[in-house]
Amino acid sequence: MARKLTVYLRLMRPANIVTSVADVLAGIAIAGYFYHLNFNTTSFYPVVLLCLSTMGLYGGGIVFNDVFDAELDKVERPERAIPSGAVTLREATFLGAFLLLWGIGFAFSYSNHAGALAVAIAFFALLYNKVSKHYSFVGPLNMGICRGLNLLLGISISVPMLTEFYYLAIFPVIYIFSITMISQGEVHGGNKRNLYIGGVLYAIVICAIAYYAIAQGKSETFIVLLPFIWLIYRPLANAIKDPIGPNIGRAVKAGVINLILMDAAWAAAFGAMWAALFIVCLLPVSIRFAKVFAVT
């Protein structure tokens, strides 16, 4: 039983799930929910519901990635859970469906707005896994939409704030578009053009965070933002210098895990510094998981 649970965790890629929780917490911070939060069970109940929702949605989406790639992985990644025989295709499909329904259920248990966003996330996750990831432009865009909706899932904790800051979803779209573009050369090696594009897209997101931090007088944001810049650009520079599969894989891994710092920077830019510090604390958790379970 313990071995089977470990296999399920391999399918779900827990290091990535932690980053999805960071997305939602950043959205909640942007919505201003943490400003006047009372430290009691009732106040944190909506936060817990939305975090549980994103865990299910992201975990389910990742599981279906392996389900739809089962045949391809027999050739390119035979070590993965399904082609290695550690779990059957049927079991993986059941797990993915359960997790997506889990995510949708917890979102609707908070509000219809959150539930609608959860349904949209599940739809775009399945669309990406089944169809769009096979296209060089549409695939990265689709994956970015999933992250943008995930940020909105957090902001939906306050409907008025959702209508005011909905456009901020574009920045996770840009960031994930960048990572997905970079990852296209992870198996067989890539070309420098995609890597340079990734670097430019990273810069757009960084400038947006810096703009909000400066506009709102939150200079403490740079305590988080500067390490974020270093941690994503260093491996990317190495990949540009030598665009072989392993280097690109490390750049992708850095981009995914350090989403947590990006989310922390957003929280800080909107004045929720203590929430930003809590999000930062998720980074070592994700890194620990990444040492045990694959990220990509």
From TrEMBL:
The membrane-topology field of this record reads: Multi-pass membrane protein
Q: Which UniProt keywords apply?
A: Cell membrane, Membrane, Transmembrane, Transmembrane helix
Its localization reads: Membrane
Transmembrane stretches, start-end: 12-35, 47-68, 114-129, 141-159, 165-183, 195-215, 260-287
Q: What Pfam family is a match, any one?
A: UbiA
Gene3D superfamilies membership: UbiA prenyltransferase
Entry annotated with the keyword Membrane:
yes
Identify the InterPro entries for this entry. Prenyltransferase_related (IPR050475), UbiA_prenyltransferase (IPR000537), UbiA_sf (IPR044878)
Name the record gives this protein:
UbiA family prenyltransferase
User: Which organism is the protein's source?
Assistant: Mucilaginibacter panaciglaebae
